[in-house]
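Section 5: illustrative case.
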């Protein structure tokens, strides 16, 4: 039934695209897709009529639903009939439709991107990051090179009249430039990037007083001889700049002014569960990065934690990292090494795989009295709530399957705001 539904939705989406011919921006990569989608939307929303993925609809069913402009019918037949009705209205009559579709395009299995690009021909493509040394989402692939080839399909499918934007700092991404027909720009911190970020200064201060909390980031954007300052309030990590760089490339390609783009990006807010600062109980600071986890993302988050100025202890509360396939042990070991290198005071792990992190950190010299292992998030949350003290800074991160947001909810200062601040607060998630 799923295959039948996929083909039906693809048929409807293809007809809609053929009729309205919106400009399509496709985004892929192993990390940073959603943040990039949000940044692109922010840059374009005042000058164009845009639509981005509904919720986290980035697969063979979700992307057609975004094109149609309707949420999933789930198990409700009448809702699926509503999807059909809305699609037919779009196809058979002239309706108001977005000028631009911003589509985050996720893949889980070989052939997924080829399937999507058979009916979606992007005008603009963005490849965020993959990571050659510590690959992500390779569970169903033969290896990292196989995954890279699959991601590359999006860049290769870009219209020759369009543009591809590649992360210059990720060699796996940059090498895609050798296989594409469309013109391309690069972005990053590499000196040869077409859009270069430089002079990065991160503001991360946290004191005893709840009000003495300040986070943000300053940098300069360099493009074709022009240099423009950029300030991103509430952005914590240098790695988060990649999303706004990709969005800036899109804005420039579509004729927007670099100065206006940088001013607009001051309103950028990281999506829920992605390096968001939340006030914790006992006048503590929480870094909520619970949407998902991969070795590169965890390492980047630990770097941020290391650089925060605080009077209290620093906690890394880390759950399992899923979908690493043959790289599972290696990926968790590298995170354990990074915990020790960044001089984290307390390490809390949740899940069987995360025990590898604890074991490696202890093996390399972290005092076992500072390492705490739990099987379930509920146990970990209660333990941290009791042990944390005023002035502490706590990073919480793990794969979606571990549900690490439950720990954040346990220790945040305003749990009644969980629906507004945390991921997976819908009824179906709360029941699971």
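Designed sequence:
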């Amino acid at each position: 039934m799923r295959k039948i539904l996929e083909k039906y939705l693809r048929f409807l989406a293809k007809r809609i695209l053929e009729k309205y011919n919106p400009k399509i921006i496709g985004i892929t990569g192993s990390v940073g897709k959603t943040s990039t989608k949000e940044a692109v939307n922010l840059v374009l929303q005042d000058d164009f009529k845009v639509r981005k993925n509904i919720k986290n609809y980035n697969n063979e069913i979700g992307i057609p639903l975004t094109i149609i402009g309707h949420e999933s019918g789930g198990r409700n037949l009448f809702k699926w009939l509503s999807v059909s009705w809305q699609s037919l209205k779009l196809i058979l009559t002239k309706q108001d439709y977005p000028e631009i579709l911003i589509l985050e395009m996720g893949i889980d299995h070989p052939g997924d991107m080829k399937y999507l690009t058979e009916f979606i021909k992007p005008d603009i493509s963005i490849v965020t990051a993959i990571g050659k040394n510590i690959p992500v989402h390779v569970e169903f692939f033969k290896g990292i090179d196989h995954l890279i080839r699959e991601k590359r399909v999006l860049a290769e499918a870009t219209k020759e009249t369009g543009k591809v934007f590649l992360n210059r700092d990720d060699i796996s991404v940059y090498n895609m430039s050798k296989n594409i027909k469309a013109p391309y720009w690069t972005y990053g911190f590499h000196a040869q990037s077409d859009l270069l970020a430089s002079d990065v200064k991160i503001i991360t201060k946290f004191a005893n007083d709840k009000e003495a909390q300040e986070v943000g980031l300053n940098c300069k954007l360099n493009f074709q001889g022009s240099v423009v300052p950029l300030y991103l309030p509430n952005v914590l990590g240098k790695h988060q700049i990649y999303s706004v760089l990709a969005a800036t490339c899109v804005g420039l390609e579509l004729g927007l002014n670099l100065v206006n783009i940088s001013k607009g990006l001051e309103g950028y807010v990281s999506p829920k569960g992605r390096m968001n600062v939340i006030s914790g109980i006992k006048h503590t600071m929480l870094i909520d990065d619970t949407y998902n986890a991969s070795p590169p993302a965890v390492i980047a988050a630990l770097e941020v934690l290391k650089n925060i100025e605080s009077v209290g202890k620093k906690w890394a509360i880390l759950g399992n990292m899923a979908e690493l396939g043959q790289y599972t042990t290696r990926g968790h070991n590298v995170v354990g090494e990074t915990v020790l290198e960044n001089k984290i005071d307390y390490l809390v792990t949740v899940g069987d795989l995360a025990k590898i992190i604890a074991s490696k950190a202890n093996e390399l010299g972290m005092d076992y009295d500072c390492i705490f292992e739990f099987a379930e998030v509920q146990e970990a949350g209660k333990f941290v709530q009791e042990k944390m003290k005023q002035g502490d800074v706590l990073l919480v991160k793990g794969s979606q399957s571990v549900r690490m947001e439950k720990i954040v909810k346990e220790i945040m200062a305003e749990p009644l705001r969980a629906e507004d601040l945390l991921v997976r607060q819908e009824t179906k998630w709360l029941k699971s």
